[in-house]
Amino acid sequence: MIDLRSDTVTQPTEAMLDAMHSATFGDDSRDGDATVQKLESLAAEMTGKAAAAYVPSGTMSNLVSLLAHADRGGEVLVEGTSHILTAELGGVGNIAAMFYRGLPGKRGAMDLDALRERIRPRITRNQQGTSLVWMETTHNAAGGAVLPLAHMAEIRKIAHENEVPVHIDGARVFNAAAALGVSAKDVAQHGDTVTFCVSKGLSAPIGSLICGSRDFIERARGFRRMVGGNMRQAGPIAAAGIVALENMVERLPEDHRTAKRLAQGLHKIDASIIDPATVETNLVRASVRASGRKAAEWSAALKPRGVMVSPCAAWELRFVTHRHIGDAEVDQAISAFADVWKTRMM
Fold first, then answer.
1. Distance between CA 200 and CA 244 in Å, rounded?
2. CA angle 9, 15, 18 (to 5 degrees)
3. What topology is assigned to 12-247 in CATH?
């Protein structure tokens, strides 16, 4: 079975399993664990931040960041199709008790004029003050699009001129950096804080990191406990995360190459499916509208043909390449897709 639903399906490498076997078993929520501390130090170094905290998931890392950053009732300014608004079950309002305003954008990059118009450094008689500005790169709903560094720099400038902090949801920040030909530190410099996952294309089984100032991370640890994110003997899973950061970052461009190959193959079937030029990283969003069959039907039809893929909208499928997907798997997926496409009129 060719699993293209997400890069979260990646399995740990042999090196990760060896590291997990020999990891320490300290209590991360009490005295700390040496392996977790090593992972956190490495994450902070690679993102250019002073400190980091290890949490179980990307969704939790975003939620804890919201809680640690902003005052209750403050407003978060975010591009309108961002992951915290579309796929995190309303944690920004339900748990962080913050208001949000989704700003218009293009391929995940919020409109700068809209940001200038909406940002307010403090509450007024009849309008909310802005507590946080939020960016996402790579951008999930925009098909893995990467925010240009110049755009990120302008966002940071506008926010800081108004004394508002900036957070980067960088679940796949190393993919973004690879696509730009820079380091993760070059991307993360445009946020006061950044989060990223080691459990996606980097292939570790569990976990995300929150990176920021020492004071911010100390505050985040308190909110991590509040939402049930404290982990006890977390050394073994942290050990896999260390291997992910040390050994798996440099291979990410291979996933971008296979995603482009997949997009080109789908485009040859029908140009309406996808424009390969829009594929920047390892996500491919394919439109099946021209087939007359909705994405859920496509997902069901592809599975018996050996391909697992997720609907991401009524008429769109999301394919995600990763280290278990090579040219042979891509070509088989294209062939299966073509087979279903041929039957669309039957």
1. 10
2. 105
3. Aspartate Aminotransferase; domain 2 (3.40.640)
Q: Answer whether 80's CB lies under 8 Å from 101's CB.
A: no
DSSP state at residue 344: T
Q: What residue segments make up the domains of the chain, in order of their start?
A: 12-247, 251-342
CA dist 330 to 146, 257, 320, Å?
23, 11, 11
Other C-beta atoms closer than 10 Å to the C-beta of 343 total: 10
CA distance 296 to 299: 5
Q: What is the pLDDT of residues 31-67, one digit of tens each?
A: 889 999 999 999 999 999 999 999 999 999 999 999 9
Beta strand pairing status for 307-308 and 283-287?
unpaired
d(CA 229, CA 221): 9
The set of residues, in sequence order, having a beta carbon less than 8 Å from that of 165 and lying 6+ positions away, is 69, 132, 133, 159, 192, 193
Whether 158 contacts 135, CB under 8 Å: no
Q: Give the three-state DSSP class for 261.
A: helix
CATH superfamily, with its number, for domain 251-342: Aspartate Aminotransferase, domain 1 (3.90.1150.10)
Section 338-342 average pLDDT: 94
